Amino acid sequence: MRIVVALGGNALLRRGEPMTADNQRANIRIATEQIAKIHPGNELVIAHGNGPQVGLLSLQAAAYTQVSPYPLDVLGAETEGMIGYIIEQELGNLLDFEVPFATLLTQVEVDAKDPAFKNPTKPIGPVYSKAEAEKLAAEKGWAIAPDGDKYRRVVASPRPKRIFEIRPIKWLLEKSSIVICAGGGGIPTMYGEDGKLRGIEAVIDKDLCSSLLASQLEADLLVIATDVNAAFIDYGKPTQKAIGQAHPDEMEKLGFAAGSMGPKVQAACEFARKTGKTAVIGSLSDIEAIVQGSAGTRISTAKPGITYL
């Protein structure tokens, strides 16, 4: 099978953990131990989130006041290299020495008129108390939004239109490479009035980009790995229930929040509809079981209705 695995940025740096390189590597090691188990006989493409990482780089850049902070597209490119490097190294330590890897900086086109630029929803950086977040928003001109019982900075998250490096990704797969690409949803770019491509201050949703990537690669399975073991209704309440299998029409009726599970559900539904294949939302530590069909929330057009675990 050709499998696209999308690793959530919050899974790579878990909620409440100090955002250290060691913690990030430890979480990536959990993911790569799972991915190594599904490598035999499969073609693998790994995408990943970067919300905590790009937010941290933004804070670090802002602390050095002698020059203007780098824009989010440049910081996004930095995170693609940083996270890709660790994934390559950790996965390479588990697989045969002859297995080739490639981490690809991936430019993704967005529309300058996308309404997301007027309604920022993408959380980046660490979590704050409400008072801390409001203070930082006033000081730095941030938009903020609730994230569970905490608050985070939010930025524009336009829809991905085109993955510029899709052909090199296909070429690498044809040579049996494991490809790490579209990190953080890719580097957000757009064409200016002069017809030249340039970066834009935004963070593309990783799951929507991974869905587009998986569709264009004609993948057999899209795995959206996050920090929970399924998509839930009434999450965090006594009435919460995990969804086992669902048709896209049923999933979309449930109204998942835009700042958390919403983009994952939307991405999974879009892939299932476009391709007729299956997308699964589940835990980073369950990737092997997800591929085997025994874990996660499976979304496909194969069966009507919805079932719960």
TrEMBL record:
Keywords: Kinase, Transferase. Residues 1-282 form the Aspartate/glutamate/uridylate kinase domain. This is Carbamate kinase. Pfam families: AA_kinase. The keyword Transferase applies. PANTHER family: CARBAMATE KINASE (PTHR30409), CARBAMATE KINASE-RELATED (PTHR30409:SF1). GO terms for molecular function: carbamate kinase activity. InterPro entries: AceGlu_kinase-like_sf (IPR036393), Asp/Glu/Uridylate_kinase (IPR001048), Carb_kinase (IPR003964). NCBIfam families: arcC, PRK12354.1. One of its GO terms (cellular component) is cytosol. The gene is arcC. GO terms for biological process: L-arginine deiminase pathway. Belongs to the carbamate kinase family. The lineage of its organism: Bacteria, Pseudomonadati, Pseudomonadota, Gammaproteobacteria, Pseudomonadales.
